[in-house]
């Protein structure tokens, strides 16, 4: 059995592999889903995971002239347009972007769906850092 998590407002094709605008939607088998949920359950860390979303809604975003010069790498998935900030906006807050990459696969759970792609993205970013 396979579990499919499409975006709730997108129409899903009824083919063997669900696709949206040419991109595969998130598919996961029961074993992977159970392992993922179990990590949060047994370690009692779901609140820490949800804190990211809470803080994102309640954070005071940097004001005029407030920037972060720490080197940044950005990787975006094509199937998550609602999580894609405009590059011009990001560059105003974080002017030291060393890597801006659009991944060809994956969705909201990209690290679980495409671990090799995420690992390669992280490796390529750290190759640009001067130690």
TrEMBL record:
Family, per entry: Belongs to the peptidase S33 family.
Superkingdom of the organism of origin: Bacteria
Alphabetized UniProt keyword annotations: Hydrolase
InterPro entries: AB_hydrolase_fold
Gene Ontology BP annotations: epoxide metabolic process
Record protein name field: Epoxide hydrolase domain-containing protein
GO MF annotation, one: epoxide hydrolase activity
